[in-house]
């Protein structure tokens, strides 16, 4: 599956309608089929919610880190950037891997975390910007000696 998968069909009902439908069913006001028709929700979706098969409405696989843990990781990365330490993708993966291992997440020590990194950057693209590592050219390094800078 590609990383930038776009779901083709969005639900035609709001989360509020789902809550109202489940409330009506629980208080014996409506049958599940009638609640599905009244609120514009597929009956299979209502039955899945009632059976407990799908408790939350989030799509896709669960992330390795929770939202709070990822926001802490963002704070650490931004702190490094404030200290003028450029953060590369490899550095972020290394920090994240150590953090995940300390939290006891089920990842191997040899994992590369590429897919996690792409999803992480997609989720936090507004808050986080990365730089590419560029080697310092020899001419620039010799031009910035103490004698040249002091003049």
Notes on the protein architecture:
54% of the residues lie in helices and 0% in strands. It has 151 residues and is an all-alpha fold. It has two domains: 15-51; 61-151, no CATH class. α1 (15-26) runs antiparallel to α2.
Main features:
0% strand; 2 domains; 54% helix; mainly alpha
Q: How many helix segments?
A: 8
Q: Largest beta sheet, briefly?
A: none
Q: Strand tally, please?
A: 0
Order of helices and strands: HHHHHHHH
Question: How big is the Rg?
Answer: 25 Å
Helicity level? 40-55%
Q: How many structural domains?
A: 2
Structural class: mainly alpha
> In angstroms, what separates the terminal alpha carbons?
59 Å
Strand portion: under 5%
User: Are there runs of 5+ residues with pLDDT below 50, and where?
Assistant: none
Mean pLDDT: 84
In one word, what is the shape? Answer: elongated
Topology diagram in text:
Layout: H1 15-26, H2 32-39, H3 43-51, H4 67-82, H5 89-103, H6 114-123, H7 138-143, H8 146-150
Briefly summarize what is shown.
By secondary structure, this protein is an all-alpha fold.
């Amino acid at each position: 599956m590609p990383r930038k998968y776009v779901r083709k069909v969005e639900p035609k009902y709001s989360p509020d309608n789902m809550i109202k439908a489940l409330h009506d069913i629980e208080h014996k006001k409506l049958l599940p089929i009638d609640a599905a028709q009244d609120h514009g929700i597929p009956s299979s979706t209502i039955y899945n919610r009632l059976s407990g098969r799908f408790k939350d409405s989030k799509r896709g696989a669960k992330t390795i880190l929770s939202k709070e843990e990822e926001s802490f990781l963002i704070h650490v990365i931004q702190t490094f950037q404030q200290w003028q330490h450029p953060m590369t993708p490899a550095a972020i993966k290394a920090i994240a891997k150590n953090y995940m291992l300390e939290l006891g997440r089920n990842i191997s020590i040899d994992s590369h975390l590429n897919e996690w990194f792409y999803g992480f950057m997609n989720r936090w693209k507004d808050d986080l910007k990365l730089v590419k590592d560029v080697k310092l050219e020899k001419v620039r390094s010799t031009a910035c000696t103490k004698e040249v800078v002091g003049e």
